[in-house]
Amino acid sequence: MKDVLQYLGIKPTEPIANSSNQTTESPGSEEELFSVPSVINLSVGEAQKLLTEAGFKTSLNGEGEVVWQQTPLPGAMVPRGTEVIISIQPKLELGSNLVTVPDLTGLTMREAAKILADLGLLLNPEGSGVAVRQEVVPGTKVRVHTPITIYFEPPSEPTEGIFRPNPLDEDLY
Could you give the maximum distance between any two Cα atoms of the chain, in Å? Predict the structure, then answer.
């Protein structure tokens, strides 16, 4: 959990305890953290060079020439060697600056982010879990790089990996 919070740029408010109620860190054992530089609006080459020189690994998401999003966010405090995912603008055909917003309800944040990135749209997530609604009505045409706010909520019940017998299937009883 500590790594996830650091990756997202969230500072801890209290020490993390292990099962014996002792903190997992002792004085002086804390890993040194470094601020992630902003590479948004830089060329892919410049972004990779800057991040590499700062001691971070990089991976690319998308196709294009200019960085429009990064994870962890600029300013997040993370250990050196952390992978920074840089999302780059998709290559667009001349004159194609409008895209149709898809219906993203029922999708996970990762699935929704992938679809929006492929279309050249930005994800503005609220909550966690699965998408329950979105602010831009599906089917609406919007400009590329428009942020789409999607509201996520935890699923009401698990949907994967659970066998639920059909009560009408008498062969099981």
Answer: 65
**In one letter, which amino acid is 45?**
G
Instruction: Quickly list DSSP for 99-163.
Output: EEPPP-TT-BHHHHHHHHHHHT-EEEEEESSEEEEESSPTT-EEETT-EEEEEEE--SS--SS--
Closest CA to 2 of 121, 96, 90, 82: 82
Could you tell me the domains of the chain? 1-12+29-90 (3.30.10.20), 92-168 (3.30.10.20)
Q: Which residue is it, tokens 């009883």?
A: 173
Q: What is the pLDDT of residues 60-119, one digit of tens each?
A: 988 778 787 888 888 889 999 999 999 887 555 545 678 889 899 999 998 999 889 888
Is the pLDDT assigned to residue 5 strictly greater than 80?
Answer: no
The pTM of the full predicted model, rounded to 2 decimals, is 0.42
Own/partner pairs for 32-35, CB < 8 Å, 24+ apart? Answer: 32/79, 32/80, 33/6, 33/77, 33/78, 33/79, 34/77, 34/78, 34/79, 34/80, 35/75, 35/76, 35/77
Measured distance between the N- and C-terminal CA atoms of the chain, rounded to whole angstroms: 43
Are the C-beta atoms of 55 and 80 separated by less than 8 Å? yes
